[in-house]
Amino acid sequence: MQAKKRYLILLSTGTCLILLFCLGGLQVPVLSQRGHNRRDDRSLSGSHPGQRWRRFLGPLQTFGSWQPERSDDYNGHMSPRQKREANLGVYTDKRCRMDSCFDFSLCVKNGFKVYVYPVQKGEKMSESYQNILSSIEGSRFYTANPAQACLFVLSLDTLDRDQLSPQYVHNLRAKVQGLPLWNEGRNHIIFNLYSGTWPDYTEDLGLDIGYAMLAKASISTENFRPNFDVSIPLFSKEHPRTGGDRGYLKHNTIPPFRKYMLVFKGKRYLTGIGSDTRNSLYHVHNSEDVVLLTTCKHGKDWQKHKDIRCDRDNAEYDRYDYREMLYNSTFCLVPRGRRLGSFRFLEALQAACVPVMLSNGWELPFSEIIDWNTAALWGDERLLLQIPSTVRSIHQDKILSLRQQTQFLWEAYFNSVEKIVLTTLEIIQDRVLRYSSRSYLMWNSLPGGLFTLPQYSTSLRDFPFYYAKLGQLIRLTYVNGDLFSFVTQLRNSWCMVIVLWNCDKPLPAKQRWPATAVPVIVIEGESKVISSRFLPYDTIPTDAVLSLDEDTVLSTTEVDFAFTVWQSFPDRIVGYPARSHFWDSNKERWGYTSKWTNDYSMVLTGAAIYHKYYHYLYTTYLPTSLKTMVDQMSNCEDILMNFLVSSVTKLPPIKVTQKKQYKETMMGQTSRASRWADPDHFAQRQTCMNKFASWFGTMPLVHSQMRLDPVLFKDQVSILRKKYRDIERL
Question: Which residues cross the membrane (predicted)?
Answer without folding.
Answer: none
